[in-house]
Structures are given as structure tokens and as C-alpha cells.
Specification:
single chain, alpha+beta, 3-stranded antiparallel β-sheet, two-stranded antiparallel ribbon, Dickkopf N-terminal cysteine-rich domain-containing protein, ECM-enzyme_regulator, signal, S_mold_repeat
């Protein structure tokens, strides 16, 4: 009974390697000679399991940090570039938490945004108007009737549906 279980385990492991890897090869040198794919972002290994098997798998560049964009470079090294959490809103404090990603904490909106010209005040919100007055940005919401809210997509008041 014990030999049957061991045989089934070996058969299962062998089937896994035959599906996910090439081989078997008699020597490590034979395996290494064919274990190539010209992709620097793949990890190539010759693994022993009653013969050598070539296993090619993607290079794992995940640094488990939600504050980076992870990728493999053309040179086959990992790149973990910090992300930008700035939402261009002076009324939020923006930071990145390693496990949660970008966090935007609302803060007192009496933040003074300095400017030299009106274009300096643009922060990507279409439902507000802005202008540079005496070296600081002045923001005002687009005024809409309560039943017709402003659309961030167009920066205009949304018309009520007509039936």
C-alpha cells in the first residue's frame, strides 16, 4: 500500500514537470544547452527530478509594495518605480501606504495655492472655476440648481431627463 501511494505521488509530480517543463535530460549540461528563450524577463532553471527538466517561468518583480509600479526591464532586472499619489487637490494630504496604496486625507481647505497666472491654478476639476488673484488661487464651484448637479466630465450642470 505504501509503495502504491509513493508511486502515485511520483507519477503526479512527474506529470507536473512534463506539462510545465521540458525534459528529461541526462546531464545538467544538456539541460542548460536547451533551457533558453532569449527573454531576459524569464527565469530559466534546470531542476533535477529523476533527470533534468528545464523550467522557464516569468521573473517575479513584485516587491509587495503598493506604492511602486513593478516591471522587468529589457536588461532582465526588476524595476520598482514609486507611484505619484498627488491628486492635484490642495485640500487633501496625499501619501502612499505600502499595503493600501494612495491615501488622500481631507484637510482644511483654506490652503493658499500660490500662482503667477490663472493657468497655475488648474487642478483638473471641471466643476469649479479658478483664477489667480494677487498671487494666490481663488476657487469657486460651478453653481447649479440643487436638482441639477455639476458633471465632472463636462463641467456643466446635468439636465434633468425628459420623458
Amino acid at each position: 500500500m505504501f509503495k502504491l501511494i509513493i508511486s502515485l505521488v511520483i507519477l503526479t509530480i512527474s506529470a507536473f514537470y512534463l506539462i510545465s517543463a521540458s525534459g528529461p535530460y541526462d546531464t545538467l549540461a544538456q539541460c542548460q544547452a536547451v533551457c533558453k528563450d532569449n527573454n531576459p524577463c524569464n527565469k530559466k532553471e534546470c531542476l533535477w527530478y529523476y533527470g533534468y527538466f528545464c523550467d522557464i517561468s516569468p521573473l517575479n518583480c513584485d516587491d509587495t509594495n503598493a506604492c511602486t509600479t513593478d516591471s522587468c526591464t529589457a536588461a532582465g532586472t526588476c524595476s520598482n518605480i514609486p507611484i505619484n499619489c498627488d491628486d492635484n487637490n490642495p485640500c487633501t494630504f496625499d501619501y502612499c501606504h505600502g499595503a493600501l496604496g494612495c491615501i488622500h486625507v481631507t484637510q482644511d481647505c483654506n490652503v493658499v495655492v500660490p500662482c503667477n497666472k490663472t493657468a497655475d491654478c488648474q487642478r483638473g476639476k471641471r466643476c469649479e472655476t479658478y483664477k489667480c488673484i494677487s498671487g494666490r488661487c481663488d476657487y469657486d464651484p460651478v453653481v447649479c440648481p440643487p436638482e441639477l448637479p455639476c458633471s465632472e466630465g463636462s463641467g456643466a450642470c446635468i439636465n434633468a431627463p425628459t420623458n
